[in-house]
Specification:
alpha+beta, 14 helices, two-stranded antiparallel sheet, Endonuclease III, domain 1, Nucleoside Triphosphate Pyrophosphohydrolase, about 15% strand, 2 domains, about 350 residues, 9 strands
């Protein structure tokens, strides 16, 4: 069996019609690849369309302000991807005169671009023979060859990268890369793939050994931390609220949120009211505090779970430094905050 040609034949029949497959423009390929990191195609497609519409060229993206980019990105998570997009666009415009890097090695110099993204752009836009290795590729290759080397360690990456590089052809590497990724996404799926219709079911090691469900192997990550977030949703007499911009290198850098009280255990009313009384914009005699959600909203990130309460703090006074409530939706916020804003309906 010719693995390469079988993959390509399958792809030409089964591929999805996606907008970034109708172009070799490296800017659009780059946008699609960054958006689709940690994101399913169905979720990423409208974001891709919005970015192309709002920033049709790398020059448009470079001159945009970060806040507008983060707002457009809202809901995708991993916001460093958006900040890296902006930084790389500015680098391409200012340092490369708007000319996109056209080799794998040069693409790796862009902020936020690693082996996979550089390989995808180099092969699709510039016909360079460099193999992609993403979750879909790991899954297909580990099952087809019966490889149990963990994919999230350096040895695993090197082994699968070398194998993929051996398989990719010099003629039309773009189609091969897209075929193997699409095959992993649509046929060799993570759970319950229909192996009876797979063109490789006569030669797949995992199918023969009954190890489909256990491959690829991934070493378990360290224990997820549990945190307790309490947001103060301030409502003033002059119809304003408070938003603060997150600083530092932690989660949601430069996004906006309501004033946050983080506690080391689930907070009760007395704990939060003591904090409220210490705030310089609160008159102890003229406020009301109530809990909006009786059960914690658990927001799961890759390395931590945020157990979240929203507390409504009503002031019988004005808030000169506040944000008019009708403008709240214009700020880029984490999806956790965005969902609350939509539900609360200021």
């Amino acid at each position: 069996m010719n693995l390469q040609q079988t993959l390509i034949n399958w792809y030409l029949v089964n591929k999805r019609d996606l907008p970034w497959r109708n172009t070799t423009n490296p800017y659009y390929i780059w946008l699609s690849e960054i958006i689709l990191q940690q994101t399913q195609v169905a979720q990423g497609l409208p974001y891709y369309t919005s970015f192309v519409t709002n920033f049709p060229s790398v020059f448009d993206l470079a001159k945009a302000d970060e806040s507008s980019i983060l707002k457009l990105w809202q809901g995708l998570g991993y916001y460093s991807r958006a900040r890296n997009l902006h930084a790389s666009a500015q680098y391409i415009v200012s340092e490369l005169n708007g000319e996109f890097p056209n080799t794998y090695s040069e693409l790796l110099k862009l902020k936020g671009v690693g082996d996979y993204t550089a390989s995808a752009i180099a092969s699709i836009s510039f016909n360079e023979k460099t193999a992609v290795v993403d979750g879909n590729v790991y899954r297909f290759l580990s099952r087809f060859y019966g490889i149990d080397t963990p994919i999230n360690i350096s040895k695993g990456f090197k082994e699968f990268k070398a194998l993929a590089q051996d398989l990719i052809q010099s003629v039309d590497p773009a189609t091969f890369n897209q075929a193997i990724m699409e095959f992993g996404a649509r046929q060799c799926k993570p759970k319950s793939p229909d192996c009876t219709v797979c063109p490789f079911n006569q030669s797949c090691v995992a199918y023969a050994k009954g190890t489909i469900a256990s491959l690829p192997v991934k070493i378990k990550a360290s224990k997820v931390k549990k945190k307790y977030f309490n947001y103060l949703v301030v409502l003033s007499n002059d119809n304003k609220t408070l938003l603060e911009q997150r600083q530092g290198k932690g989660i949601w850098q430069n996004l906006y949120q309501f004033p946050l009280v983080e506690t080391d255990k689930p907070a009760n009313y007395d704990m939060i009211v003591d904090t409220v009384k210490s705030l310089d914009y609160v008159n102890e005699e003229t406020f009301e505090l109530s809990l909006y959600n009786t059960s914690d909203i658990v927001h799961k990130l890759s390395h931590q779970h945020l157990n979240t309460k929203f507390w409504i703090l009503t002031l019988n006074s004005n808030l000169p430094q506040g944000v008019p409530v009708q403008k709240v939706e214009s700020f880029p916020v984490p999806i956790l905050i965005g969902n609350f804003i939509e539900d609360f309906n200021f």
